[in-house]
Known about the structure:
The protein is of the alpha+beta class. It contains 4 helices and 4 strands. 54% of the residues lie in helices and 22% in strands.
Amino acid sequence: MTNPVTQWFERRSSREKRLIGALVGAAVLIAAPLAAFRVASDYRAEGERRLQSAVALLRDADALAALGPGGEAPVALNAGGSIQSAATAAASEAGLVLSRVEPAGPDAVRISIAPASALGVFEWVSAVQSSGGEITRIVLVRAGDGDLVSTDATVTRRRG
């Protein structure tokens, strides 16, 4: 049992076989560099996209660092005096949607913020700090194109 393509090829004259071989060889010589170029182009585009994402993340980190501790004296917690109510009030003022709020001890709360603008998150951090809270842990993860970030943070009552 032989393949129909093989049978067809065997019925060709030697001249036709050489011509078919040359055409297949030329197709391979043309297709191989094109395929290599396509792969290299995809790697380059992916690298450029990752570079732009890293530059944007660095810019966001610089903006967060520029907020700094502020050096202002601790103020009393607003919104009823609880750290949880102060953090949630600051989030609603910044236009953020909280996806999870849970206690993390007597004077701490863990908060997850749905994907939102990094600038909105920075405003929330500033509002929490100005209301007497302290961000003891924060994780920002880029969540799509632009400046969208998902945020997990632990907010505690400022000591002192």
